[in-house]
Amino acid sequence: MTVEGKLRAAIVGSTGYGGVELIRLLQNHPDIEVTSVISSSSAGEPIENGFPHLTGIIQRNLDGVDPAEIAGRADVVFTATPSGVSAKLVPQLLEAGLKVVDLSGDFRLKDGAEYEQWYKHPAPPQAYLEQAVYGLCEVFGERAAGVDFISNPGCYPTATLLGLIPALKAGWIKHDSIIIDAKSGVSGAGRGTSLMVHFAEINENLKAYKINKHQHIPEIEQVLTEIAGEKVTVTFTTHLVPMNRGIMSTMYAGMNGNYSEQDFVELYREYYEGRPFVRVRGAGVVPATKEVSGSNYCDIGFATDARTGRVTIVSVIDNIVKGAAGQAIQNLNLMMGWEETRGLGYTPVYP
Amino acid sequence: MTVEGKLRAAIVGSTGYGGVELIRLLQNHPDIEVTSVISSSSAGEPIENGFPHLTGIIQRNLDGVDPAEIAGRADVVFTATPSGVSAKLVPQLLEAGLKVVDLSGDFRLKDGAEYEQWYKHPAPPQAYLEQAVYGLCEVFGERAAGVDFISNPGCYPTATLLGLIPALKAGWIKHDSIIIDAKSGVSGAGRGTSLMVHFAEINENLKAYKINKHQHIPEIEQVLTEIAGEKVTVTFTTHLVPMNRGIMSTMYAGMNGNYSEQDFVELYREYYEGRPFVRVRGAGVVPATKEVSGSNYCDIGFATDARTGRVTIVSVIDNIVKGAAGQAIQNLNLMMGWEETRGLGYTPVYP
Amino acid sequence: MTVEGKLRAAIVGSTGYGGVELIRLLQNHPDIEVTSVISSSSAGEPIENGFPHLTGIIQRNLDGVDPAEIAGRADVVFTATPSGVSAKLVPQLLEAGLKVVDLSGDFRLKDGAEYEQWYKHPAPPQAYLEQAVYGLCEVFGERAAGVDFISNPGCYPTATLLGLIPALKAGWIKHDSIIIDAKSGVSGAGRGTSLMVHFAEINENLKAYKINKHQHIPEIEQVLTEIAGEKVTVTFTTHLVPMNRGIMSTMYAGMNGNYSEQDFVELYREYYEGRPFVRVRGAGVVPATKEVSGSNYCDIGFATDARTGRVTIVSVIDNIVKGAAGQAIQNLNLMMGWEETRGLGYTPVYP
Amino acid sequence: MTVEGKLRAAIVGSTGYGGVELIRLLQNHPDIEVTSVISSSSAGEPIENGFPHLTGIIQRNLDGVDPAEIAGRADVVFTATPSGVSAKLVPQLLEAGLKVVDLSGDFRLKDGAEYEQWYKHPAPPQAYLEQAVYGLCEVFGERAAGVDFISNPGCYPTATLLGLIPALKAGWIKHDSIIIDAKSGVSGAGRGTSLMVHFAEINENLKAYKINKHQHIPEIEQVLTEIAGEKVTVTFTTHLVPMNRGIMSTMYAGMNGNYSEQDFVELYREYYEGRPFVRVRGAGVVPATKEVSGSNYCDIGFATDARTGRVTIVSVIDNIVKGAAGQAIQNLNLMMGWEETRGLGYTPVYP
Asked: For residues C53 and D242, what is the distance between their CA atoms, to the nearest angstrom?
């Protein structure tokens, strides 16, 4: 099952930002060997043609997408594919006996009808939606142990859910009061070309987009509803910030009591005890996105306000690491029963 | 009173970003002549030493701060000075018979005790706080006609208040539900040096700061309270975005009815009819900051959400123009009985 | 010939950055009225659909490209079209009796064979190549008076030629020693989408491109050769800098004597006397691109080096203004016999 | 001599960008343990106060600068101190029996008089200038084996020298024709505050500075002179680019023959054979700075021009890694007789 004792991994979608970040991060994983980098659009070409930064690091031609061939070359597949593609591909990979960590959004929603409403594609077969374990590691990590199929959380949901769940679970915030003002760097839009990601249109600019229409909304609500034990509906806005990496969710909620910042710090530190990738900042301190850049951390801080009875929660991640490739590897670590930090000891790159 | 029929203007604080923007904008004002550029720190030096972009445009040495001398050279003074400085200087300028448009925050709050609580300086004398007309042009423009002293609104309050007032006045939003998530470019922090504005700390980074502690909060609440007729308290967060210019206020409020985006568009277009610097976007469209950059526009758009009963209002300005120098000139136009657009016909610079 | 005494202008290519900058700049021209904005790709749509910053400023649907119709609506046409398109369109516009300022590169080279070698398109008819006046205003301005057809210089050639010509003409620099290291903001690449202009690929990055292969090389050499009176060949490198606007040409040449920086300052100030858009900086001072941003200035500075016998000349422009739309208007002013600064009194936008 | 078999390292200047990058990179070095982080300005404070990205990664208070104490805690010291400070400190550290890798420029020039001319400080004692081994690893790596004191090359010299030396050594380029147009990200200016590094002054801007006056000039010339066997003098310009990390040296030289790009590729690949941190690109390809960001690579590409007989060489590094902290670790590896890549297996962070 392994190459020289290592787990063999294939990456589908190796020419997107999520795929290429998997390659970067897996270079230093002691137990995983990347044995196939796969791209439907550029099969046959050396990967360094499109990503010269990999020159001399991974000398390999891109493979095509063929489940049977993949099964011959790999034990696990990361599918960093566009939504709609994974829906069709993942069942074939699972049938071929592969483990799968899916980075698309196709298997995150348990309700196929809801998927079709927000994603505008046909949903994957219900059996696979049910099989998929939603891999928000610090919350549902124990569900990942030993399974074959993980649906990796979205970037916005990761930052948002890690920032909200302890307070929601503790009953400290009002379920119907949650407002999420999220901001992302541009790599989150993918490597496809469009006027929306043209440098001159983004630089020196700040845009809001998809207000209350983003497909990450039902994903967030599905988890919050499970935690709260009743239907939770949120207001959710996304903004595009002129930077490459980073997501910040600034979250607002009415408090059910007179909690201080220190109370929140203690609640969250207790909740995340033993989970090294969540760093709860001290009272009065909120994190900036650069403080986690290039790493798998999610940093969280709080500001409570006695004047309004609200708490403001700030949660930041690197959208391509903790929001995609890093958490996918963390999930594989949990699937395999390894330490969740294995191969992910990246200090944030600062500045 | 005029040089060749023009009003003579002095600018105190000419070596800050607000002051130097006043110089840029006033170059094309047909009725105003800048007769003195003033800086306490660099008096005697040519202004182009610190601002080489003004080479050949304004060849003038910086003057010192002496109210009697200013009165001999100018009819009106723009005080683009730090908070605390204007508190002492403006009364002297008014005593010397000058008209004043003050760009500091020193005369915006009517309650001296509240000023001292948020600004941590001694308040100016109460008589001057009362004399100052709060110059939010599109809302209180008629109060400016003929007066001698305008307190120019802050940058965040300008974007925020123009975005909230029509809905609040119409009774469409709940007074106790207002949450303001504001984002600013770095020029808003001024030209002083600090680690906070170091390029390498800001670039590729997004920070929240002064959550619920920003001195613009009481300014916003003072006006909203007046409009609402009862005390309004807001939740207010500011963020620093890696760009030079631009403010976006993303604002959330619970609605008192089932209003559509088109309803909001019509309400706001009616409210701002005849005020060309506010551009209300069509239903489903929200503005980006670059779309007003370099100009005196405030652009506003809406997203309503039947699922949550909330409206999201997005309001953008150029923080140095509509949020400072441009609105100051607009106020002077109103003071003088001129068209408010006079000398302010700047098309946004795009890209 | 005019609307209310104004010259009527049409802009072909109104949905590119050059075209939309013409619209911005012409808003404040006292003698020109934009009567048609033209786009082959978006005809029929309101221009503000693609450029919301123009909302309320120019309310006009885009027209199609029809020379006869244009002749009915306009007196002069700015063709801000891709290379290859102007080659075919401009002769038709001239035949229709219109004045033309062409912003493409199609009519800059006098030698059709050289055009085809560098541009890889068929050259326009030789008669039109000969008719076109190369509109480098501060050097050949007198040739523009009264003509019907100007070929507007390229962005790199404008910064480069204005920086080299006085020294070359004076015989101070060796003809065979000229090396030009040029850097541009991304708007110079146009508004078309491609991986090359994807925000995440440009931001936090610096690239060299088209080394010794850029189509502006023969344009630069053609003019330098005319000035020098013998064939001049240059080494020319272009770089893409993560900013929207601005070109800097850093130029190196061996000196024919022991000239000081002050000598260069005096030589250039004498050469450009009476040409307000060229600002020659004092000895020891070189300009930065932001110091001309949004304006029609070209700023030039010098560093001489006795150790190597070389001079380093730094020349900066805003690539969309002096490098395109601004110089095009300046050329029209010269064609019409107006002051060359007419309608171009823009102070640089700083910061 | 070691902590659990590891070499103990102290970092002086831990609150600068070079020092904090040493901390990041050393986290993953299998044979080194950071036992002291030292700062004269912030001694006693937790390092995460100034660098929150290190929260939970290195929990340690900053130590003061005391050579005797350092000798008790460490085996090797990295001095990432300002020029002038190392001149005094390093001799004390060496006397105390420590190994030293000095990242300041104080020990790079062999001639004290030349040091004083360019650095404007008193030179260190001549004995130490002579003792210092100039650690340009891929060129002088064999000199580092077993020594106690390395002077780490400057950022600009590293990119420049690695790009020039093989051609110079082979006699392919004219010694008196070398022109270096260098560009750097802003982290190279250090973490100190000044108007020069204010975000709003750098963003959307490109500046040239210290033309022919940069203190890295004599360092470059000293090495080129040694390689060439006769005095080499260069023209050298530095530019500040609106990005955090990255240096590009674009270098121009007259060729002594009719060499092709492929000739250069082969010459350089042969010269750098067995040195994995230099990646020579294929013919016709030049590297961009992002392609080495966060890593210890130096990538080099070529463009030759038969028209002018010149070659253009493009060399890029991450200024804080290969230009400072990374090469310092590489030097320590060589001093200790370890593989030079040990602990430096960082894939570039892209995008």
From this structure: 25
- C206 and C71 in a common domain: no
How many structural domains comprise chain D? 2
Annotated catalytic sites of C, by residue? 155
Position C40 in a domain = yes
Asked if residue A299 is part of any domain, the answer here is: yes
Domain span at residue B308 reads 156-319
Residue B42 lies in a domain: yes
C-beta atoms of A347 and D51 within 8 A: no
Contact list in A for residue C320 (CB cut-off 8 A) is: none
Q: Which of C205, C312, C351 is facing D288, going by the closest CB pair?
A: C205
* Alpha carbon distance D108, C196 (integer Å): 39
One domain for residues D201 and D60: no
Tens-digit pLDDT string for chain A (351 aa) = 455 789 999 999 999 999 999 999 999 999 999 999 999 989 999 999 999 999 999 988 999 999 999 999 999 999 999 999 999 999 999 999 999 999 999 999 999 999 999 999 999 999 999 999 999 999 999 999 999 999 999 999 999 999 999 999 999 999 999 999 999 999 999 999 999 999 999 999 999 999 999 999 999 999 999 999 999 999 999 999 999 999 999 999 999 999 999 999 999 999 999 999 999 999 999 999 999 999 999 999 999 999 999 999 999 999 999 999 999 999 999 999 999 999 999 999 999
Same-domain pairing of A244 and A203: yes
Kindly state whether C37 is in contact with chain D, defined as any CB-CB distance less than 8 angstroms: no
Mean pLDDT of C46-58: 95
Handedness of CA B182, B183, B188, B189 (dihedral sign): positive
Length of chain B: 351
8 Å CB contact between B313 and C149: no
Residue D27 and residue A347: Cβ atoms within 8 Å?
A: yes
Same domain, A68 and A185: no
Which of the following is catalytic: D129, D144, D155, D247?
D155
- Assigned domain for A329 exists: no
Of D187, D194, D203, the CB nearest to B244: D203
DSSP H or E run through C264: helix C261-271
ipTM of the complex: 0.97
Same domain as D189, residue D63: no
The reply to whether A115 and A202 lie within a common domain is no
Question: Which of B71, B97, B131 marks a domain boundary?
Answer: B131
| Distances in whole angstroms, Cα of residue D331 to Cα of each of B39, D75, D139, D345 | 51, 15, 12, 15
Same domain, D116 and D199: no
Examine the domain organization and report whether A108 and A180 are in the same domain.
no
Q: Is some CB atom of chain C closer than 8 A to the CB atom of A346?
A: no
d(CA C280, CA C282): 7
